[in-house]
Write a structure and sequence with these properties.
By secondary structure, the chain is α+β, with helices and mostly antiparallel strands. Among the domains are: 86 residues, Pdz3 Domain (Roll), CATH 2.30.42; 223 residues, 2-enoyl-CoA Hydratase, Chain A, domain 1 (Alpha-Beta Complex). Helices cover 30% and strands 22% of the residues. It has 12 helices and 19 strands. The strands form 4 sheets. Strands 3, 4, 5, 6, 7 and 8 form a 6-stranded antiparallel sheet that branches. β15, α9 and β16 form a beta-alpha-beta unit. The longest helix has 21 residues. Keywords: Hydrolase, Protease, Serine protease, Signal.
Length: 448
């Protein structure tokens, strides 16, 4: 079995008296002259660095135990170089580049989990709702130890993604160490189509709505606008929209452009986010503009440790502009911006080029967004196999009715009863509703 060569340099050690035998002669490299301290401190020039790389490439190609092609060695070296920069930079071969594009624009197959490389461990940022990973109980902070019996210890992040994905209805077996677990557990998951609907909504009561944004893909803003228009139309008979709970919990992020346009729906003016890199070329400020679709209803935003990247841009912008009260738990803390750079052969680079800053010029990199009101999630006394986010197809606005099953329709609980059960299971959501209902009174008190 070939070993993963990404990011590894080959060192030939000749150890006398080790009791080991080798088939065939091994020629040691010529002894190098001793360097003076001054010479050691001098950085390698680009030419010297490339010459060293070429020498090592030649040694590995000639002397490694297996016959490895030069193209494979170079790809491994590129992956290792990018992996050594930060957890989010990586090399994407043509197939991986295509898969990456599908995650933001189309349907793809897998288990539905956002992952990151933290301290050399494959860590779950968040499972995507209504996916095999989510239904199997995978949670933020879980560590993926093996995939189909293969240790993830020496895999790159992209290797892990490629192994987890696969054709629909095929199985993948993961060994998982849960956040508070003492022993690994084995999960056998059947790959499925990852849903591309990113916005869901449900009415709390007349005038008050719960809106879940599960990620930021190409259609998120359009979906959110549609949901808000439906809510406004429905609430018109009851005095209009009176409050919104925007739920960004376990939202792993996505497209920067969508984070900006979603924030702009709730802001009339001012900075949404600024980006700062090594040079002026990468610096940019995104600002809100007044538009007819601006939403003025009081807001609460829910976040937790699974809220990352684009979610944190939205939460940070609404917090700094005092547009919404942020409730829940400290967010993940991914404050870096990646550019996807296509290459001529169909492959690509995902490269961290900048950090983003909230309107108050705060970087959330490795810090996260701190809620205005911190409320840890409390598991209900009794739980079943249902998720705590209980939105289903029947809960979606404009869902298609099943006209062929009157019995199923009669057996279905009323929306009010479903909402009561959801609030009973979710203490953060209960608090968010209470706060958003009290915001007009608090605002009036502050103005006086």
């Amino acid at each position: 079995m070939r070993h993963n060569l990404a990011g590894y340099a080959l060192t030939l050690l000749l150890i006398a008296g080790c009791g080991c035998s080798m088939a065939g002669p091994v020629t040691a490299a010529p002894a190098q002259e001793k360097q003076t301290p001054a010479e050691k401190k001098q950085p390698l020039s680009k030419f010297d660095a490339l010459r060293r790389f070429g020498q090592i490439l030649d040694i590995v190609e000639r002397s490694y135990v297996e016959d490895i092609g030069q193209a494979e060695l170079v790809n491994g070296a590129i992956k290792g170089m990018l992996q050594g920069l930060d957890p989010h930079s990586s090399f994407l071969n043509a197939e991986e580049y295509k898969e990456m594009q599908e995650t933001t624009s189309g349907e793809f197959f897998g288990i539905g989990v956002e992952i990151s490389m933290e301290n050399g461990q494959v860590t779950v940022v968040t499972p995507i709702e209504d996916t095999p990973a989510f239904k199997a109980g995978m949670k933020t902070g879980d560590i993926i130890l093996t995939i189909d019996g293969q240790s993830t210890q020496e895999m790159t992040l992209q290797d892990v993604v490629s192994r987890i994905r696969g054709p629909k209805n095929t199985k993948v077996e993961l060994s998982i160490l849960h956040t508070n677990g003492r022993e690994p557990v084995t999960l056998s998951l059947v790959r499925g189509a990852i849903p591309i609907v990113s916005v869901k909504s449900k009415k709390f009561e007349d005038g008050y709505y719960w809106i879940r944004v599960t990620r930021f893909s190409e259609k998120t803003t359009d979906e959110l606008l549609s949901v808000l228009e439906d809510a406004a139309r429905e609430a018109k008979a009851h005095g209009g929209l009176r409050g919104i709970v925007l739920d960004l919990r376990n939202n792993p992020g996505g497209l920067l452009s969508q984070a900006v346009s979603v924030s702009d729906l709730f802001l009339k003016s001012g900075t949404i986010v600024s980006i700062k890199g090594r040079s002026d070329v990468t610096e940019r400020v995104y600002a809100a503009e007044s538009q007819p679709t601006d939403v003025k209803a009081p807001m609460v935003v829910l976040i937790n440790a699974g809220s990352a990247s684009a979610s944190e841009i939205v939460a940070g912008a609404l917090k700094d502009h005092h547009r919404a009260v942020i409730v829940g738990e400290r967010s993940f803390g991914k404050g870096s911006v990646q550019n996807i750079i296509p290459l001529a052969d169909g492959s690509g680079l995902k490269l961290t080029v900048a950090l983003y800053y909230t309107p108050d010029n705060r970087s959330i990199q490795a810090e996260g967004v701190v809620p205005d009101i911190e409320i840890p999630f409390e598991m209900p006394a009794k739980t079943d196999n249902e998720s705590r986010f209980l939105l289903r197809e029947a809960d979606l606005n404009r869902h298609l009715e099943n006209k062929g099953s009157e019995e199923g329709s009669k057996a279905r609980k009323s929306e009010d009863q479903q909402m009561k059960e959801q609030l009973a299971q979710d203490n953060q959501l209960r608090m968010a509703l209470q706060i958003v209902k009290g915001l007009p009174s608090l605002q009036a008190i502050r103005n006086n």
